[in-house]
Design brief:
The strands form three sheets. The protein has a six-stranded parallel β-sheet, sandwiched between helices. 46% of the residues are buried. It is built from ten helices and eleven strands. The protein is 40% helix and 14% strand. The protein has one domain: NAD(P)-binding Rossmann-like Domain (Rossmann fold). Helix 5 links the parallel strand 4 and strand 5. Helix 4 runs parallel beside helix 5 and helix 6 packs parallel to helix 8. The structure holds NADP nicotinamide-adenine-dinucleotide phosphate. The site of NADP nicotinamide-adenine-dinucleotide phosphate has 24 residues, from helix 1 and strand 6.
Length: 319
C-alpha cells in the first residue's frame, strides 16, 4: 500500500531522535495529517490505552520509532526492561494496528538483531543463523520478535508491514547522557566537556579496535518515507551507508571537529561488543534507496546542534 500525503500517519516515539527526524522530514515534505502523542499522553506499555487510541484514531499508516533504547552499559544493567518494555510497546502497537485495519506499518529495529559473528557485511539472510552479542541480546530478542510479528501478519493476511533495520544512528536530539548513550554522542560530549575543561584527558570505553558503521538520522527518516510510499518486495531491509570505520578513527574525527587538544585514554577493560558490524545495504539499494549524508558532515551538524542546545541536551535516565 502506498501512503499519500493526506493520509493519517501515526508516528510512535516522535519525541525521540529517530521519531523527531521522521516527523520533521514528513512535515517538510508536505504530509499534513501526522498523528503524534507524547509519553505523558499515551504510555505505549499500557495495552488498554493503546487499543483505545488506535481504535478511536484509526490511522492509515503507523511508524514505530518508539522503543527503550540505550548503549552497552544500559543494556547490561537493565536487561529485563530492555526485553520486556520493547516486547510490550511493539506488540501493543503492531497488534492494535492490525486489529484496526492499518494497511501499512513500518517497524524500526536495529542491526543488533543479527548474530555476533555474522558474515560481514551482514545481510538480512543472516537473521537467526547464530548467537547474538550477549550484551544487547535482550533488546535484540525483542526486536527479532517484532520483525517476525510483522512478517507473520504480512504472510498470513497480506498486510504491508515492513521492518527496517538501521545501523548505528546519530544526529540532533540524540541522548547525551554518559550512562545510557551510544558511542558517538558520548564521544561528542566527552570531547566537548574536556575541551571546556582546559583540554583535560578524555577516557573512552574499550580498546577502540572494533569497526562500526554510522548513519545520520535524516537519512533513516528518508528511508522510512521511501518505504512508506512504495510497496517493497520483501518484509525486512537493512538501512545503512555500507561503510564502516574503527572506533579509534571515529574518536579522531570527533576530536578534530570539537577541537580537543588533550590526551585520549582507552579503557581496554571495558567490553568492546561485536568486533565488526557493517550492514549489507544492497537489498534496499536494489529497490532504489541510498544514504546521502557523509559521516564528517553529519558529525559537524550534530556537534553544531549540540552546541546550540547545551541548555536543553537530552539525557535519558533509566529506572
Ligand atoms: N539510536 C540508534 O542508534 C538506533 C540505531 C538503530 C535503530 N534504532 C531504532 O530506532 C528507534 C528509535 O530510536 P531512537 O534512537 O530515536 O530512540 P530514542 O531517542 O530513545 O526515542 C525513543 C522514543 O520512544 C519513546 N518511548 C519509549 N518508551 C515509551 C513508552 N513507554 N511510551 C511512550 N513512548 C515511549 C520515547 O519517549 P520519551 O521521549 O518520553 O523518552 C522516545 O520518544 C528504535 O526502534 C531503535 O531500535 C536506533
Amino acid at each position: 500500500m502506498n501512503v499519500k500525503k493526506t493520509d493519517k500517519i501515526y508516528i510512535a516515539g516522535h519525541k525521540g531522535m529517530v521519531g523527531s527526524a521522521i516527523y520533521r522530514l514528513l512535515k517538510h515534505r508536505g504530509y499534513n495529517n501526522l498523528l503524534v502523542r507524547t509519553r505523558n499522553e499515551l504510555d505505549l506499555r499500557n495495552q488498554g490505552e493503546v487499543v483505545h487510541f488506535m481504535s478511536s484514531e484509526k490511522p492509515k499508516a503507523v511508524i514505530i520509532a518508539a522503543a527503550k533504547v540505550g548503549g552497552i552499559l544500559a543494556n547490561n544493567q537493565y536487561p529485563y526492561q530492555f526485553l520486556r518494555d520493547n516486547l510490550i510497546i511493539q506488540d501493543n502497537l503492531i497488534n492494535s494496528a492490525f486489529e484496526n485495519g492499518v494497511k501499512k506499518l513500518i517497524f524500526l529495529g536495529s542491526s543488533c538483531i543479527y548474530p555476533k559473528f555474522a558474515q560481514q557485511p551482514m545481510s538480512e539472510d543472516s537473521l537467526l543463523t547464530g548467537e547474538l552479542e550477549p550484551t544487547n541480546q535482550w533488546y535484540a530478542i525483542a526486536k527479532i520478535a517484532g520483525v517476525k510479528q510483522c512478517e507473520a501478519i504480512k504472510k498470513q493476511f497480506g498486510r504491508d508491514y515492513v521492518s527496517l533495520m538501521p545501523t548505528n544512528l546519530y544526529g540532533p536530539g540524540d541522548n547525551f547522557d554518559l550512562e545510557t548513550s551510544h558511542v558517538l554522542p558520548a564521544m561528542i560530549r566527552k570531547f566537548h566537556d574536556a575541551k571546556e575543561d582546559n583540554h583535560a584527558p578524555v577516557r573512552l570505553w574499550g580498546s577502540g579496535s572494533p569497526k562500526r558503521e554510522f548513519l545520520y538520522v535524516d537519512d533513516v527518516a528518508d528511508a522510512v518515507e521511501f518505504a512508506l510510499t512504495r510497496e517493497l518486495s520483501s518484509n525486512l531491509y537493512n538501512v545503512g551507508s555500507g561503510i564502516d570505520l574503527f572506533i579509534k578513527e571515529l574518536a579522531e574525527k570527533i576530536r578534530e571537529m570539537v577541537g580537543h587538544k588533550g590526551e585520549v585514554l582507552w579503557d581496554a577493560d571495558k567490553p568492546d561488543g561485536t568486533p565488526r558490524k557493517l550492514m549489507d545495504v544492497s537489498k534496499l539499494k536494489a529497490e532504489g534507496w541510498e544514504y546521502s549524508v557523509k559521516l564528517e558532515d553529519g558529525i559537524e551538524q550534530t556537534y553544531n546542534w549540540f552546541r546550540s542546545n547545551l541548555d536543553n541536551i537530552r539525557e535519558v535516565k533509566f529506572d
